């Protein structure tokens, strides 16, 4: 019984290792680029010609951003096929200088981060502007509702009192009530239509 359990575990482990290798091989053979709308696209076929080379993030068998085919030093494919051509290509190939923290492509990453931060800041600003507009609209609706209620009170001949400079209340007479109703109606038409 122990042998069969160990055998099953070994077979399972081997199957998982094969799956991991297949997934790694598939990930190495994928293209990655940003489309015209800025969305990330993953595919096993190259991007269409309309996608600029700067938008391609990853190409199979090449480093990110290096999409030009590697040319042999002699310039001909025959020279590259010969063992001497391969040795010369490996010796003469320029090695990019590492910058700062060892990142070969520090500048594009920084510019991508900067672009992301700009988009995020623009989105946050747009959301803040929209929130301010929504708040102003709610306050305007509240003022309009209050003005409509006041106009209704004036039309129904309810007693309306105003405060005098000394703080004492004084009730409006009919002429003052009509003038106040006209003022409130004009304000409602102008601001709450």
Provide an overview of this structure:
With 193 residues, the chain is mainly α. Among the domains are: 26-65, no CATH class; 138-191, no CATH class. It has five helices and five strands. α4 packs antiparallel against α5. The relative contact order is 0.05. Residues 64-73 and 75-99 have low confidence and may be disordered.
Taking the sheet with the most strands, its summary is: 3 strands, antiparallel
Work out the strand percent.
Answer: 5-15%
Helix share, percent: 55-70%
Shape: elongated
Series of H and E elements:
HEEEHHHEEH
Chain-wise SSE layout:
Layout: H1 2-28, E1 31-34, E2 40-43, E3 56-58, H2 77-81, H3 83-92, H4 106-155, E4 161-163, E5 169-171, H5 174-191
Antiparallel strand pairs: 1-2, 1-3, 4-5
Helix pairs in contact: 4-5
Pfam families: DUF4124
Signal peptide: 1-27
Organism: Cupriavidus basilensis OR16
Describe, in short, the structure shown.
The protein has 193 residues and is mainly alpha-helical. It is built from 5 helices and 5 strands. Among the domains are: 26-65, no CATH class; 138-191, no CATH class.
Protein traits:
193 residues, mainly alpha, two-stranded antiparallel ribbon, 5 helices, 5 strands, elongated
């Amino acid at each position: 019984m122990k042998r069969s359990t160990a055998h099953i575990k070994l077979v399972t482990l081997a199957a998982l290792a094969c799956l991991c290798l297949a997934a790694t091989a598939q990930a190495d053979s994928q293209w990655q680029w940003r489309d015209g709308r800025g969305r990330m696209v993953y595919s096993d076929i190259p991007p269409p010609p309309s996608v600029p080379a700067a938008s391609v993030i990853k190409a199979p068998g090449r480093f990110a951003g290096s999409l030009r085919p590697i040319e042999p030093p002699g310039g001909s494919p025959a020279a590259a096929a010969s063992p001497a051509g391969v040795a010369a290509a490996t010796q003469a190939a320029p090695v990019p200088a590492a910058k700062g923290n060892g990142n070969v492509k520090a500048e594009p990453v920084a510019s991508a981060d900067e672009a992301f931060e700009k988009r995020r800041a623009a989105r946050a600003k747009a959301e803040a502007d929209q929130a301010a507009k929504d708040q102003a609209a709610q306050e305007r609706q509240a003022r309009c509702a209050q003005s409509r209620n006041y106009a209704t009170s004036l039309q129904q001949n309810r007693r309306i009192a105003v405060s005098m400079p000394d703080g004492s209340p004084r009730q409006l007479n009919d002429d003052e009530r009509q003038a106040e109703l006209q003022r409130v109606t004009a304000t409602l038409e102008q601001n709450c239509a």
